[in-house]
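Data availability (excerpt). The following record was deposited with the supplementary files.
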Amino acid sequence: MQITLDIPEELFTKLGLLDQSVSQVLELGVNELVARLQPGFTGFAEVLDFLANLPTPEEILALRPSPSLQDQIDRLSEKYQTQDLSPAEQQIWQQYEYLEHVIRIAKAKAYLKLNPNAS
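Predicted structure:
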C-alpha cells in the first residue's frame, strides 16, 4: 500500500540518514506505541531504556522510579490496601512487583561491583 505523508524537515533528514526502509521505521514505531499502551508496560519501558544505555554501578544504585511511574505505583498501592483490585490491576501490580525484584537484583550486583569485599 502506498501513502503520502507530510512530515517535518528534521524528521525527513533523520529518515534519510537511516539505512532502514521507512516501512521498517514505521513498524518499529507503531510496535513501540502499541506496547506502551499495554497495562504495566510503562515501568518496564523506562527500566529497559535505562539498562540499554549500559549504566555504571553508581547509576544503577541511584535508579529511582520516574515521578509518573511512582504516582502510578502509589495509586495502585493505595487501592490495593483499601479494596480489591480488578484482574487487570492485579496483573499490573504483579508486574510492578516483578520489576522491583529485577531492580533489586541489579542494585545488589552493582553494590558488589563497587564493594567486592562485601560478599
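Summary of structural features: The first helix runs from residue 9 to 17.
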